[in-house]
Write a structure and sequence with these properties.
The complex is a heterodimer of chains A (about 350) and B (about 350). Chain A has about 350 residues and is α/β, with parallel strands linked by helices. Chain A has 2 domains: about 180 residues, 3-Layer(aba) Sandwich (Rossmann fold); about 130 residues, Response regulator (Rossmann fold), CATH 3.40.50.2300. In chain A, helix 4 links the parallel strand 3 and strand 4. In chain A, helix 2 crosses helix 10, helix 3 runs parallel beside helix 4 and helix 7 crosses helix 8. By secondary structure, chain B is mostly helical. Chain B has 2 domains: about 260 residues, ABC transporter involved in vitamin B12 uptake, BtuC, CATH 1.10.3470; about 40 residues. Chain B has 15 helices and 2 strands. In chain B, helix 5 runs antiparallel to helix 6, helix 5 crosses helix 12 and helix 13 packs across helix 14. Chain B is globular and about 75 Å long. In chain B, about 45% of the residues are buried. The chains are: A alpha/beta (about 350), B mainly alpha (about 350). At the A-B interface, helix 7, helix 8 and helix 9 of A face helix 3, helix 12 and helix 14 of B.
Chain lengths: ~350, ~350
């Protein structure tokens, strides 16, 4: 990334400024509703504002708050920069909110601020993107690697009749999460789908153009390819775009992890039958319920604690204070119009 | 002394044609391109024969083709434009936004707005380079970051999706006329227009003169400032059009769109025989260079060569092309010196 080093320099400056100005501008938040007795006051701090994915999480969190009579206030930076969230955390701590629900831009950069907030009695829940475990009470995990890998293999198996040649279109060759998923998918295929052959893994670098061209190359190279799995939102959209204009449309199945907005056109024109991703609305919903459970001391974040999360049912805190949302959500023709992110 | 230093050639027209062809970089690169396509076709017949294969072969290079034409016009004047990748991204996003915010806007209008917008961005480069007399490398490196920064600020985590754009526009990305994709046709028309201007029009020749020796061109009274400005505007407008193509072809525009395309455009021009220090080279060569670069990217995976080597191969090609240039120009220099010495001793 070309901008990384520049951004770090700018950030250092911004952090210094933010640090200095913090006491001064601590109060310009609209939240500020006084400590309502007993009701759960939750500050939601996404990676950045104006991000449709987090807008969906907020909808879920607000829905949950409506059910348990709490209040959700969303604050956040414009850009998902590593330490842009620090000032918001400090503000929430000063306001004495019940809980802070954070999607961390950086696992360590906001740690000190979070721990100060916890010392001040604020419960800290991370969702979507975790910090180091010692900086928060509970992490609400959208999906575990095993579940993600299995969901995608199951989808492709269903679409190609559980036999044939399959290729993977990944992001960068050194992307940690992608590689973990690919390894688990290989194991899943070897263990449970003997008639599926994984012929190739190519890398689109999360670049529309490269992913597009790699898809073309895959189709050209394996004329009998049955399906493509792309466990990256950029990759699956590019592959779908190529397939939708190709003579292979409808013959080669495509699935993976995508967002409904990106994939809507391709679901509608029949290029893609179904794809998976966690449901960010459910994620926000569960995170809000987790925060409420912490505020009411129903749970402390110990392994084995259980709590009720409204219509999602009962959840148990796992190792390292993790709560798992569940299986990835499958989007298809019937439900894609219900989502907007 | 009426002796000429170099006499008119005594070779026949046919001999000259053959010799010229053998010496021409355009033909050398074209032969490599054809060989590459042949190898890929043997390996995977779909590459050329399949209807997808034929279309992709022609349409994929169309974006880089436009950029290479524009880049050539600038490089010939001994400048360079590194901001074209950012221009492509920014224009592609603008195109998407136009479709989102002004539903029903005609495609032709959008394409024109895209070109004008690109031309305006090119004008900024041109003004800074021509009036500021700052090296183009530095100016356009700066505007590359500025345009990209504006794009990041504007788009943020937002993205233009295929569903946001009318299907008629997206169809342009694959539509064919007599089996030739429309995007490629438009790019080729641009190529012919610019190629003709550079070869036969007065201002076209002046660009070469400026690139050969800017100081001499100024002394001679050529409108250097205006010509350099014009070159950047042409380059920007073509990059704007490339942005329109990008949106139509890929259907998704996120803030990374067009990244690194500027270097590919320079590489295409250099491989196609455009001298990086200006004054020589043709858009035909740059166009073939663009085709070659894109086709290599597509062929290497088909041949089963890992991703990691693809860039190395492209790098090797660039260095090979420059080395070949050097060898050829040294040889030509020697021949000219020889001719001069012969002419002197003969008198």
């Amino acid at each position: 990334m070309k901008f990384q080093s520049r951004r770090v320099a700018v950030l250092t400056a911004v952090t210094l400024l933010a640090g200095m100005g913090l006491t001064a501008c601590g109060g310009d938040d609209d939240g500020g509703s006084g400590g309502g007795g007993g009701s759960a006051e939750i500050t939601l701090l996404p990676k950045n504002l104006g991000n449709p994915y987090f807008d969906a999480s907020r909808t879920g969190a607000e829905k949950a708050a409506g059910e348990f009579d709490g209040e959700v206030t969303e604050v956040g930076p414009d850009q998902a920069a590593p330490d842009a969230q620090v000032s918001y955390i400090n503000t929430a701590a000063q306001q004495g909110v019940g809980a802070l629900v954070v999607s961390a831009n950086d696992p360590t950069a906001i740690c000190d601020a979070l721990n100060e907030a916890r010392d001040a009695g604020v419960k800290v829940v991370t969702f979507d993107s975790d910090t180091d475990p010692e900086c928060r009470d509970v992490f609400v995990n959208q999906a575990d690697a095993q579940g993600i890998a299995k969901a995608q293999v199951d989808l492709i198996a269903e679409q190609i009749g559980d036999k044939g040649k399959v290729a993977i279109l990944s992001a960068a060759a050194n992307a940690t999460n992608q590689n973990a998923w690919i390894k688990l998918m290989e194991e899943e295929i070897a263990a449970n789908h003997p008639n599926i052959e994984l012929v190739d893994t190519v890398y689109g670098d999360d670049d529309d153009q490269k992913s597009f061209d790699e898809t073309a190359a895959l189709l050209s190279r394996y004329s009998d390819l049955a399906g493509i799995i792309s466990p990256t939102t950029v990759g699956i959209a590019a592959a779908a775009r190529y397939l939708s204009t190709s003579e292979q449309k409808g013959k080669v199945a495509l699935t993976g992890l995508g967002t409904p907005d990106q994939m809507r056109a391709y679901i509608k024109d029949g290029t893609v039958t179904s794809f998976a991703l966690w449901n960010p609305e459910d994620l926000g919903y569960l995170a809000a319920y987790t925060a409420e459970a912490l505020i009411n001391d129903d749970i402390t974040g110990e392994e084995g604690d259980t709590f009720e999360a409204g219509e999602l049912g009962e959840y148990t805190v796992g190792a390292d204070g993790g709560v798992l949302l569940g299986e990835p959500f499958v989007f298809d023709e019937t439900n894609i119009d219900d989502f907007n992110f | 002394m009426t002796d000429l230093l170099v006499r008119p050639t005594s070779e026949s027209a046919r001999q000259r044609l053959v010799k010229g062809a053998l010496r021409s970089r355009e033909i050398a690169v074209f032969v490599i391109l054809v060989a590459l396509i042949a190898v890929a076709t043997v390996r995977s017949p779909n590459f050329l024969v399949g209807s997808d294969g034929w279309r992709d072969l022609l349409v994929t290079p169309s974006i880089l083709l436009l950029l290479a034409i524009g880049q050539t016009v600038v490089i010939i004047t001994r400048n360079v434009d590194l901001s074209v990748g950012s221009t492509v991204g920014l224009t592609a996003y603008l195109v998407g936004r136009l479709f989102v915010d002004q539903p029903g806007i005609p495609i032709v209008v959008v394409a024109l707005i895209g070109m004008l917008f690109g031309a305006a961005l090119g004008l900024v480069n041109g003004v800074l380079v021509a009036f500021g007399r700052v090296p183009a490398l530095v100016v356009t490196l700066g505007t590359m970051y500025i345009y990209r920064g504006v794009f990041l600020e504007w788009a943020g985590s937002d993205r233009i999706n295929a569903g946001d754009m009318p299907s008629g526009f997206l169809r342009l990305g694959t539509e064919q006329f007599l089996t030739i994709p429309v995007l490629t046709l438009v790019a080729l028309v641009m190529l012919v227009i610019v190629g003709y201007c550079l070869r036969s029009l007065r201002w076209g020749r002046e660009l070469y003169a400026i690139g050969s020796d800017p100081a001499a061109a100024r002394l001679y009274g050529l409108p250097v400032t205006r010509r350099v400005l014009g070159a950047f505007v042409i380059c920007g407008a073509l990059a704007g059009l490339a942005g329109v193509f990008y949106a139509a072809r890929y259907g998704t525009v996120s803030s990374g769109a067009g990244r690194n395309l500027e270097l590919e455009a320079v590489a295409a021009a250099v491989i196609g025989g455009v001298a990086i220090f200006g004054g020589s080279g043709t858009v035909w060569g740059a166009a073939i260079g663009a085709f070659l670069l894109v086709t290599i990217d597509r062929v290497l995976p088909i041949l089963g060569i890992p991703d990691f080597w693809q860039r190395a191969v492209v790098g090797g090609l660039i260095i090979g092309a420059v080395a070949l240039d050097r060898v050829l120009s040294l040889r030509r220099e020697r021949q000219l010196r020889q001719a001069r010495d012969d002419a002197r001793s003969g008198s």
